[in-house]
Amino acid sequence: MFAMRYKKIGARIVYFRMLQGISQEDLADKAGISQSYLSKIEHGAYPKNLPLTTLLLIAVALNIDVCEIIKE
């Protein structure tokens, strides 16, 4: 259940990142997280609960509302 949700969240992050032409490295830098951590999130491979604060950092870096990332 959560694995599928994480994959959808990761896919939305990739979508908005690509839409804006931002590399994974640039987004990670803007969000203040490591590129490897962002890669795990984008691939839905995050093994435990994904903190909302991390999603907020990514949303701010993408200049979008966090709801765009977590909506069903």
Short précis:
The protein is mainly alpha-helical. 68% of the residues lie in helices and 0% in strands. It has a single domain, classed as Orthogonal Bundle (434 Repressor (Amino-terminal Domain)), CATH 1.10.260.40.
Low-confidence stretches: none
The main pleated sheet reads as: none
Beta-strand content bin: under 5%
Topology order in helix (H) and strand (E) letters? HHHHH
Distance between the termini: 13 Å
Strands, total number: 0
Within the CATH hierarchy, at the fold level, what is the topology? Answer: 434 Repressor (Amino-terminal Domain)
User: Helix/strand-derived class?
Assistant: mainly alpha
Shape: globular
User: Roughly what is the average pLDDT, rounded to an integer?
Assistant: 91
Count of the separate structural domains? 1
Overall helicity: 55-70%
CATH superfamily: lambda repressor-like DNA-binding domains
Tell me the number of helical segments per DSSP (H or I, 4 or more residues long).
Answer: 5
Q: What is the CA-atom radius of gyration, in angstroms?
A: 11 Å
